[in-house]
């Protein structure tokens, strides 16, 4: 006997797969179980009981025909039947083995194949139906996607974040405390409360006491850090799964194929069963050539299970018909609507999450199947497709991680002396920032998609804002706040057209620093947004690849005091617009590919500082024209290719700082000594072999940098510069240091490392301001100084 449990493995699937089984698949499973029981029952009877019983036919040989027994017997008259009864006790002269032989032989030759194999056919067909139904759950190409989907679906359904997100959105869509109470009750009921009178009573109680709902927030709104991290991981899984599954439609195709196969199988079974079911008969005539063995050639056989098999066959055909109708309905469901597209329109309208995207292909098909089971699954799953929901979760996690206490530990004073909070590479902007009202400068770097909330207005001391590769949206209501408070704005992005437009409307702005590139086709025009609204702008810094000075710079010509253009090596051609900057005091043209000093600079009568760092200047003959810039005090010509300084540098009497480091100078003109106002001279990193004695005329010189040259000796006149405080002579070829160095009483820093000195003059002790920390020299040379000199330098 074959127990039904042996076939259990054919119908077993993971319990979680039931969510992908619509009602017709569930009904089909029950029908297959019923059909399988019919087949197993018939097979059991076949194995355990006699299949057929045969008796010899006593009709005379000449009266025998091919007609079956049931057609021969009714032709007998009552008298003949009585005669048969009289001979009933006659022996047939057959023993048990002969009967068994005749039974087996007639079963194989006379009984119709349908009557013999009916139960086995039922089992085989039912197993095929089972395989067709569950094949997509077993096939490697589909089962992996299904298992992954079911796993994610269950986690999304049970995630506390799902309930919280739906609760928050529902709360936003309601007005008033009573409406909020209704929303909370609805969410709790939807999340799993059993419907019934008790549920209605609870809802009425909530509506009757709205104050309790408002003052006692539900537990589901509390989300700890661990649950937040789990929800964050779910968002990433859903994104990757969606990308993977939406690429193809193998699930949809496999489901259609197995359904079509079941329909074809149903039609074939139905046709041949209706044709052959009448072949199951109770009496069977059997004619076999066994007269030499048994003495008889004709037998009348009784198919012992014919009556039961005929009843089972009709039951089986009925189940098959119902099964076939479900398959036909499945085909209708598959083709009467586009199952490869799924719209969350109703979910968007119900939850208010307008950014939930529609899906397609296998992702859409599985969601359609889920809706046949319970549409609540897709509704809760949709929460993890919403970017709004994800951003809220990120915000919650950020607030958990970045508490006000932790943020206060990051507060530091920046170069301008403002109390600055710097945040880098965060997934968002913590709301807790706006609890630090003492913040004066906010620096945000590599933070994507920032949207400032209304809480920004709580930073009443905010004066400086830096957005470095951090795209930002600012509500209109906050623009007024920033316009009144912000003094310094820094924006760095890939392209300047990404700079938020609201930046150019901050009327109270005093400093604007922009960094980004113009597109190649627009670099030559270098079009920048209008700066007319920036009525108080004093400092403008632009780091880009502009081909000319942006025309909009002239919008602030009347009050702009400092302009910095850093071109990263791109050549700046058109500079005539600089002439309009009459109030400009500081000008930086760094890495602009300049080969000559721009003539437009000489028209800037108010100019005090000029920086031409990192250009391609070879000649500075135009330096004579700087005499028109009567207020010029600082000139930076460092990091160029200047080979000599012209003699008319003497005209720059008002110059106080001159930077010529990192050039190709080998000599300095003696006329440099006529720049009587010079306080700082930096000619380090050149190829100087000597200094002109006239350098001693620089009586106001306080800082002299001669490091990294080829100086072999210093003129004694140098030590006439009695105000010298810093003297840098490192990495030269000096073999001795003049004892006149003791005349530099104000000297506080002296660098001598990297020379050929063998001894230091003891007159260094006369430099009252020089201490050990300010003397940069090899230890052996320092130890060679007299003890009293060293003691004097080491005094506090």
Structure write-up:
This protein is α/β, with parallel strands linked by helices. Among the domains are: 1-58 and 94-169 and 225-401, Gap junction channel protein cysteine-rich domain (de novo design (two linked rop proteins), Up-down Bundle), CATH 1.20.1440; 643-795, Leucine-rich repeat, LRR (right-handed beta-alpha superhelix) (Alpha-Beta Horseshoe). Helix content is 38%, strand content 12%. Strand 6 (412-413) and strand 7 (419-424) form a beta hairpin. The longest helix has 30 residues, at 306-335. The relative contact order is 0.05. The model is unreliable at 174-221 (pLDDT under 50). Belongs to the LRRC8 family. It is found in: Cell membrane; Endoplasmic reticulum membrane; Lysosome membrane. It is a multi-pass membrane protein.
Offer a concise description of the structure.
The chain crosses the membrane at residues 27-47, 117-137, 313-335. With 796 residues, the chain is an alpha/beta fold.
**Looking at the structure, what is the overall shape?**
elongated
* Range of strand content: 5-15%
Ranges where pLDDT stays below 50 over 5 or more residues in a row are 174-221
What's the tally of helices?
23
Please identify which CATH superfamily of the domain at 1-58 and 94-169 and 225-401 we are dealing with: Gap junction channel protein cysteine-rich domain
Report the span from N to C terminus.
108 Å
| CATH architectural group of the domain at 1-58 and 94-169 and 225-401 | Up-down Bundle
CATH class of the domain at 1-58 and 94-169 and 225-401: Mainly Alpha
In round numbers, the mean pLDDT is: 83
Q: Classify the helix fraction into a percent range.
A: 25-40%
Task: Indicate the structural class.
Answer: alpha/beta
Biggest pleated-sheet summary: 17 strands, mixed
């Amino acid at each position: 006997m074959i127990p039904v449990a042996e076939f259990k493995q054919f119908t077993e699937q993971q319990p979680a797969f039931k969510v992908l089984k619509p009602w017709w698949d569930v009904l089909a499973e029950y029908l297959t179980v019923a059909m399988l029981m019919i087949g197993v029952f018939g097979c059991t009877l076949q194995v355990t009981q006699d299949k057929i019983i045969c008796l010899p036919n006593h009709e005379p040989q000449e009266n025998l025909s091919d007609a079956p027994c049931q057609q021969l017997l009714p032709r007998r008259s009552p008298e003949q039947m009585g005669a048969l009864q009289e001979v009933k006790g006659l022996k047939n002269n057959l023993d048990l083995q002969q009967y068994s032989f005749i039974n087996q032989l007639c079963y194989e030759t006379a009984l119709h194949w349908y009557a013999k194999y009916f139960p086995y056919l039922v089992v085989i067909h039912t197993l095929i139906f089972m395989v067709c139904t569950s094949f997509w759950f077993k096939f490697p190409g589909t089962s992996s996607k299904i298992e992954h989907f079911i796993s994610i679906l269950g986690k999304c359904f049970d995630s506390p974040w799902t309930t919280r997100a739906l609760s928050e959105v529902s709360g936003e869509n309601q007005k008033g405390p009573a409406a909020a109470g209704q929303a909370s009750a609805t969410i709790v009921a939807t999340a799993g409360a059993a419907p019934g009178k008790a549920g209605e009573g609870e809802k009425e109680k909530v509506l009757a006491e709205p104050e309790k709902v408002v003052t006692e927030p539900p537990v589901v709104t509390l989300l700890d850090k661990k649950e937040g991290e789990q929800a964050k991981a779910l968002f990433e899984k859903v994104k990757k799964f969606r990308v993977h599954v939406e690429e193809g439609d193998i699930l949809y195709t496999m489901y259609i194929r197995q359904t079509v196969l079941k329909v074809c199988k149903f039609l074939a079974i139905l046709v041949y069963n209706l044709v052959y079911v009448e072949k199951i008969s109770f009496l069977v005539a059997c004619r076999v050539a066994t007269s030499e063995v048994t003495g008889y050639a004709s037998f009348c056989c009784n198919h012992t299970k014919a009556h039961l098999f005929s009843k089972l066959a009709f039951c089986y055909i009925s189940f098959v018909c119902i099964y076939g109708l479900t398959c036909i309905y499945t085909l209708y469901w598959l083709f009467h609507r586009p199952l490869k597209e799924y719209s969350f329109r109703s979910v968007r309208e119900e939850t208010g999450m307008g950014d939930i995207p529609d899906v397609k292909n296998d992702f859409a098909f599985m969601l359609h199947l889920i809706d046949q089971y319970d549409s609540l699954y897709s509704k809760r799953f949709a929460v993890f497709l919403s970017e709004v929901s994800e951003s809220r979760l990120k915000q919650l996690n950020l607030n958990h991680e970045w508490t006000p206490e932790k943020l206060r530990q990051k507060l530091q004073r920046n170069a301008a002396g403002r109390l600055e909070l710097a945040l880098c590479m965060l997934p968002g902007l913590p709301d807790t920032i706006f609890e630090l009202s003492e913040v004066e400068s906010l620096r945000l770097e590599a933070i994507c998609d920032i949207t400032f909330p209304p809480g920004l207005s709580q930073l009443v001391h905010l004066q400086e804002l830096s957005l470095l590769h951090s795209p930002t949206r600012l509500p209109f209501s906050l623009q007024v706040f920033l316009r009144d408070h912000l003094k310094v704005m820094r924006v760095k992005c890939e392209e300047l057209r990404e700079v938020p437009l609201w930046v150019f409307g901050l009327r109270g702005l005093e400093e604007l620093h922009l960094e980004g590139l113009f597109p190649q086709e627009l670099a030559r025009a270098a079009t920048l947004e209008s700066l007319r609204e920036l009525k108080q702008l004093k400092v403008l810094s632009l780091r880009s690849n502009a081909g000319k000075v942006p025309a909009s710079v002239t919008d602030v010509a009347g009050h702009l005091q400092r302009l910095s253009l850093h071109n990263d090596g791109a050549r700046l051609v058109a500079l005539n617009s600089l002439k309009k900057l009459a109030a400009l005091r500081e000008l930086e043209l760094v890495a602009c590919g300049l080969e000559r000093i721009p003539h437009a600079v000489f028209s800037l009568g108010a100019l005090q500082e000029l920086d031409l760092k990192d250009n391609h200047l070879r000649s500075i003959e135009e330096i004579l024209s700087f005499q028109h810039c009567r207020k010029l005090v600082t000139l930076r010509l460092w990091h160029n290719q200047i080979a000599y300084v012209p003699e008319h540098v003497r005209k720059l009497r008002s110059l106080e700082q001159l930077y010529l480091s990192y050039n190709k100078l080998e000599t300095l003109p003696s006329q440099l000594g006529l720049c009587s106002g010079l306080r700082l001279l930096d000619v380090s990193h050149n190829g100087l072999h000597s200094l002109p004695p006239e350098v001693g005329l620089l009586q106001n010189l306080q800082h002299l940098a001669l490091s990294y040259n080829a100086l072999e000796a210093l003129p004694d006149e140098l030590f006439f510069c009695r105000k010298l405080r810093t003297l840098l002579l490192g990495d030269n070829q000096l073999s001795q240091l003049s004892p006149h160095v003791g005349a530099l009483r104000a000297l506080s820093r002296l660098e001598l490392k990297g020379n050929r000195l063998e001894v230091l003059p003891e007159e260094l002790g006369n430099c009252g301001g020089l201490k050990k920390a300010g003397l940069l020299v090899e230890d052996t040379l320092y130890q060679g100084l007299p003890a009293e000199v060293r003691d004097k330098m080491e005094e506090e």
